[in-house]
Inverse folding.
């Protein structure tokens, strides 16, 4: 337990030192503005399109730094030590995904009220959407570890990760989009929320095990 | 039963597979040509027009078999991947690899014929109807599975990775399918073909459709056998080259 | 002969489209098989020449 805490602290400090937060938030803002401006030119800037842009932007930016998650440890041999050590590799994957979520998705989510207010979503709605995202985006970080594990040691794996992992974001995106729409039209559907959170929890519970199995393939 | 079990295990040995495949491929080829042409010609020329859909109903004879195959080939790939991960039978892995391209093409043709049929009947080529969306999802997972084989060289490690990708992909494909079906049932009618239901579609369309489905399945099996055979021979060549060059 | 009333174009284009898509797989399978057969033959003759 103590070891996991230390690992968490180390990973977090490492990620903060890498300026990953700045990059992912800038990417998110640029993506939102570019798509918003593009839609603005054809006069299509309703709340609906903005919601879609936000969900797609958050899923794209959570894939940005995923490649380095295991690659650096794989290259310098830290991953070998982790596998040889007493700590289960699932715990390490869990910690790494949590850190990834804190450093990429969390800053973006806090930005959403700020950026969606000038684009036409009311503050109240955007805060509700933020709450939904807060509970569902951890799944995105956890799922994308599978892609990082699959392309371990592969040059130019970034494109491959997007090809493998973006389709698996679909359940979350579909439910998230629908719930955001229900929120903005004031049709509160508790069932949909519960299913989204259940999906997110299932992903969090299962993916560390799948990822560890895939990582072990590289060591046989 | 015991003989059957023995045969299945023998089939997993690449050499035995090759000798069996060499024997049955010509037979399958002839059968495919006969049944597929019979079904398609019957469907195209000797079926009446539907009173509502007119002659556009004839598209069903390729739309339904390709859609049926598109889903079931992915299912077959999943089973083959699981067998590879558990029993390490190389033929199983190669079968999954070889089936992927055929599955992709079947998905594309199902979407294409559906779109062409949808324009006059529903008034649109494409709508985000749940069933169409699930085919789009299937297409994405086929592309993902194919891209892992296209970018990396054949090895047991890549076999493991692709098998895991297939398993993860099918979990998420299923989840997405239910997510899409969560709110509405969409434009499609309920399943029009089933073995236990009383109300099937009319017999005039039913028999040629069944023949077409059998024909397409045979086509898939023939292509799959040839592709597996080619792949095994490719690996043999690689091994021979490595042995010769040291 | 190829006249199906109102929807002739749709029927024909969907049959032709599926046929061309499926023929992609058929042709690629055939070419692959042919290439491998030739390679195997070359390899065997090479081995004979070495000895």
């Amino acid at each position: 337990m103590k070891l996991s805490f230390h690992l968490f602290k180390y990973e977090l400090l490492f990620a903060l030192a890498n300026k990953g937060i700045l990059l992912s938030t800038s990417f998110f803002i640029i993506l939102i503005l570019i798509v918003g401006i593009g839609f603005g030119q054809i006069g299509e800037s309703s709340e609906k399109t903005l919601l879609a842009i936000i969900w797609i932007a958050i899923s794209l930016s959570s894939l940005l730094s995923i490649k380095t998650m295991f690659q650096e440890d794989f290259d310098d041999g830290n991953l070998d030590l982790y596998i040889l050590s007493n700590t289960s590799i699932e715990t390490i994957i869990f910690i790494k995904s949590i850190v990834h979520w804190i450093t990429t998705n969390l800053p973006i989510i806090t930005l959403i009220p700020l950026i969606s207010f000038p684009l036409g979503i009311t503050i109240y709605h955007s805060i509700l959407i933020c709450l939904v995202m807060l509970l569902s985006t951890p799944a995105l970080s956890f799922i994308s570890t599978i892609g990082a594990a699959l392309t371990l040691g592969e040059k130019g794996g970034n494109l491959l990760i997007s090809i493998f992992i973006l389709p698996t974001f679909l359940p979350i995106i579909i439910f998230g989009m629908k719930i955001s729409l229900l929120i903005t039209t004031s049709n509160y559907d508790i069932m949909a929320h519960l299913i989204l959170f259940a999906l997110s929890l299932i992903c969090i519970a299962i993916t560390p095990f799948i990822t560890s199995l895939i990582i072990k393939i590289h060591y046989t | 039963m015991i003989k059957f079990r023995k045969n299945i295990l023998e089939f997993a040995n690449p050499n035995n597979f090759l000798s069996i495949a060499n024997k049955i491929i010509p037979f399958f080829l002839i059968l495919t040509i006969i049944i597929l042409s019979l079904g398609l010609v019957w469907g195209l020329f000797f079926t009446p027009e539907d009173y509502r859909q007119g002659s556009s109903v004839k598209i069903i004879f390729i739309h339904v078999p390709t859609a049926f195959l598109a889903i079931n080939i992915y299912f077959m790939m999943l089973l083959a991947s699981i067998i590879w991960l558990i029993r390490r039978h190389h033929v199983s892995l190669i079968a999954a690899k070889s089936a992927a391209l055929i599955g992709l093409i079947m998905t594309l043709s199902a979407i294409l014929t559906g779109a062409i049929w949808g324009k006059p009947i529903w008034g649109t080529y494409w709508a985000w109807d749940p069933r169409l969306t699930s085919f789009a999802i299937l297409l994405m997972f086929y592309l993902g599975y194919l891209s892992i084989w296209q970018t990396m060289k054949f090895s047991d490690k890549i076999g493991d990775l692709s098998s895991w990708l297939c398993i993860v992909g099918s979990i998420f494909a299923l989840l997405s399918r239910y997510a899409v079906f969560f709110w509405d049932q969409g434009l499609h009618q309920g399943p029009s073909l089933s073995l236990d239901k009383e109300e099937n579609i009319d017999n005039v369309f039913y028999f040629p459709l069944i023949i077409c489905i059998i024909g397409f399945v045979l086509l898939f099996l023939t292509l799959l056998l040839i592709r597996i055979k080619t792949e095994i021979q490719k690996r043999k060549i690689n091994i021979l080259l490595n042995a010769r060059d040291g | 002969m190829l006249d199906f009333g109102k929807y002739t174009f749709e029927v024909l284009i969907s049959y032709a489209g599926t046929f061309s898509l499926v023929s992609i797989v058929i042709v690629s399978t055939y070419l692959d098989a042919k290439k491998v057969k030739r390679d195997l033959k070359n390899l065997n003759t090479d081995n004979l020449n070495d000895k």
Notes: Residues 2-217 of chain A form one domain.
